[in-house]
Amino acid sequence: MMTYYELIELRDKLTNGDISLEYAKKIFWSEFKEGERAWHSKDWKDRRTNVLKDKCEICGSRETLTLQHLSHPKKYYEYERDVTKKYTQSLRESYSIINKSDFGEYIEKKYDYVPVPLCPNCKNKYPNKRKRKKPQYLCTECRHEFNEPIYMSIDALIDLFCKNEEAAEVRDKCFVSKDKWKNQHNLSQVKYWLQREKVKAKNDEIIKKDAFLLYLENNIKYLSFEDTITACKKCAYNFDINNMELCPKCKEYYKSIKYPTCIQCLPEEKRKAVLDSIEFGKEMQEMHKKLGID
Ligand SMILES: [Zn+2]
Ligand SMILES: [Zn+2]
Ligand SMILES: [Zn+2]
What we know:
The chain is mainly alpha-helical.
């Protein structure tokens, strides 16, 4: 795993274009081992000492203090997904017109069309299909009886959609994706995925670079100890550290978002109960550890 300063150097070189994305990734991933913990490195331990406060920022205890991160870097692919989404969104805001033949081709390639049955007389959707009675269908709207419903062709649907994306006729999720997910989409969702695909093809390199820089940035932030609090071992065990915020009353200690204030600011009785439950939780945790459940 690369150290804090190595990561900063890598980020800067990539930002300035001194190295290619491919090269930066190669360096990063060759140093990266899944599951390797940053806090095993000497670099981490050295800098940590400077950040660690002299008491727990949750309960005030001075016993066995650790640094707890309030946020964690996401996985690389999550950044790539976020960046792709952002680019797609900006395309949709600046240029939302879609080429009809592209649309048709994309649908044919990616989706099966499961058309909505319509009444041949009034075009009302989903006529009643009767088990025994003939003719088999009854339109609940115009009471017309018939044997064969009609269907809209894909081209007719696309034509309608291009005129009015909000039209009632084009809202049905009658396109089933051909992949293993079998997602049901309506035309406006199909359009989104088509635009997303185009954006990805056109901006592949930029998207990947943006995403990788974001990923580096967040790893640097993590290693920098920004967004950390000092917590005693008990509090670290027992609080969902990701859901902590500064107590609004004293603005000194941290509190779980479940509680209105920090432990210090709770009324005496409640404070005792919370401290007891922390103690209890810690005992349970240690018991689990001994039993090998943890
Ligand atoms: Zn504590
Ligand atoms: Zn009808
Ligand atoms: Zn407080």
